Enoyl reductase (ER) domain-containing protein (Dioscorea zingiberensis), 342 residues
Amino acid sequence: MAVVPNKQVVLKWFIVGAPQEKDMEVREGTAELKVPEGSGGVLVKNLYLSCDPYMRGRMRENYSSYIPPFQPGSVIEGFGVAKVIDSDNQNFKIGDYVSGITGWEQYSLITRNEHIKKIEKDDIPLPFHLGLLGMPGLTAYAGFYEVCTPKKGDYVFVSAASGAVGQIVGQLAKIYGCYVVGSAGSQQKVDLLKGKLGFDDAFNYKEESDLSAALKRCFPEGIDIYFDNVGGAMLDAALVNMRVHGRVAVCGMVSLHAYTDPEGIHNLFTLVQKRIRMEGFLQSDYLHLYPKFVECVANYYRQGKIVYLEDMKEGLENAPAAFIGLFSGKNVGKQVVCVARD
Ligand SMILES: NC(=O)c1ccc[n+]([C@@H]2O[C@H](COP(=O)([O-])OP(=O)(O)OC[C@H]3O[C@@H](n4cnc5c(N)ncnc54)[C@H](OP(=O)(O)O)[C@@H]3O)[C@@H](O)[C@H]2O)c1
């Protein structure tokens, strides 16, 4: 039975406040390249790993979340794309490509096989199964069509618009016939939104002294749909710019991840005044839409109607820095880490 080196990223301790690189450690472990007989498990070589903002919640001890915390000293887990190198499960054979929950390490033994699914190696790049055709893509698809209940001609605002989720929301909204504006944290991202991703307008929120005035400038007639990825001050500013019967889809609050004592939202009374529907959602409630979502978004991609920005960091040892970068906007597009190409 071959035992090989297995580089791993572990959480050192539970964190308080913003995550930092020193909260994680890259260590040299080992892996047996054989699935224990009768285990029903699958041994995979990890190729691409996804950095997602929700993982920050799993690093907190007392985070009342929809998913249990990581344990200090254990390998961090998250979405990944991997290749099967041994299998004791009839649904997966050696050489298959899979996506799903795996470890931040070179080789993982996956025993909860409901966490992975087979994917085809075709004209869609393998790492896109972590973004465009993965969890962020489903989030954008379900959030836009199901939660935002769009109408053609709606005025749509998307925050963190160049990120994994935001860029898809904006493009789906454009295809639907909406007027779409995005906010992002650098001029480079603003240029990409307007140039490459086809948004009607975009602004750098870090250069605006008055977010409400910036939104008023972009939406003189108000906002019908706000797809909120950031929460905090941007949510407050969007609320006062909403139109009557507007919809706010609360997807995430990445701006709050760093705070143990989040600031409050001041403009909630506009929900009453303007009869706004504000709804939080989790993509996991929409897994039944997965086949419809993949067919729709893959077709749009193949037809050139959707482009996808990806930020690929090379090497497992760079995963902690790539992950931390999400919280200061270092990623330009979906943040992925390449562990191995095949
Ligand atoms: N509800 C669900 O089921 C679900 C599923 C997936 C993701 N989410 C949520 O969706 C949001 C976007 O996730 P993603 O995977 O697409 O991440 P992402 O946008 O690819 O990366 C995070 C981005 O957030 C922005 N950001 C970071 N700190 C910020 C701050 N203090 N204020 C404003 N913006 C900040 C940065 O962009 P800038 O440079 O533009 O600041 C950064 O690039 C997150 O809130 C995430 O938790 C929810």
In short: Residues 52-54, 136, 139, 160, 162-166, 184-186, 189, 229-230, 251-255, 281-283, 326-327, 329, 331, 334 surround NAP (CB under 6 Å).
